[in-house]
Automatic annotation (TrEMBL):
Domain Exonuclease: 1-134
Residue ranges of coiled coil: none
The name this protein goes by in its record: Interferon stimulated exonuclease gene 20 like 2
SUPFAM superfamilies: Ribonuclease H-like (SSF53098)
Keyword NADP found: no
InterPro entries tied to this protein: REXO1/3/4-like, Ribonucl_H, RNaseH-like_sf, RNaseH_sf
Listed GO MF terms: exonuclease activity; nucleic acid binding
Keyword annotations of the record: Hydrolase, Nuclease
Top-rank taxon, per record: Eukaryota
GO cellular component, one term: nucleus
Length: 169
């Protein structure tokens, strides 16, 4: 697990505190982006990465993870079907968690908890892990449909400024 605040290379224009919970004082001892990027990419190398809408996190990291090693819970029709949602629509982590795990996440005014989101994502993955992995082994040509390209949940401040989150599972 990577558990550090990361200072972006560009100036922060919006902390998005309402969603991220991050404030100016969190950046005082934050890890510089390039150092964090090196550390995170070393952790991810050769590993299966599980997350929800992971492409946003990879974009913030300026990174492309192999599709065969990526599991994006926002893109698996089986999860949507089990939750009673249309298969071809990306459903929010909050709604999937409520429907399938009967848990409320992302509540309150202090911002999302990236740890809570990461745990919810892992629990959702476990709901379909056996069937999903079996399907991927039997249908490698359909992999892109199931794995369009998230270490569980990364919360950023302002993705346009390249801001990275505090937690990485």
């Amino acid at each position: 697990m990577y558990d550090s605040y990361v200072r972006p290379a560009a100036p922060i224009v919006d902390y998005r505190t309402r969603w991220s919970g991050i404030r100016r004082h969190h950046m005082e001892n934050a890890v510089p982006f390039l150092k964090a990027q090196r550390e995170i990419l070393r952790i991810l190398s050769g590993k299966i990465v599980i997350g929800h809408s992971i492409h946003n996190d990879f974009k913030a990291l300026k990174y492309f993870h192999p599709k065969a090693l990526t599991r994006d819970t926002s893109k698996i029709p089986l999860l949507n079907r089990k939750g009673g949602f249309p298969e071809n629509v990306a459903i929010s982590l909050k709604r999937l968690t409520k429907a399938l795990l009967h848990q409320d996440i992302q509540v309150g005014n202090s911002g999302h908890s990236s740890v809570e989101d990461a745990r919810a994502t892992m629990e959702l993955y476990k709901v379909v892990e056996t069937e999903w992995e079996q399907h991927l082994m039997q249908n490698p040509q359909q992999e892109a449909r199931f794995i369009p390209a998230r270490c569980s949940r990364l919360h950023g401040l302002n993705w346009n400024s390249g801001m990275l989150p505090k937690y990485l599972f």
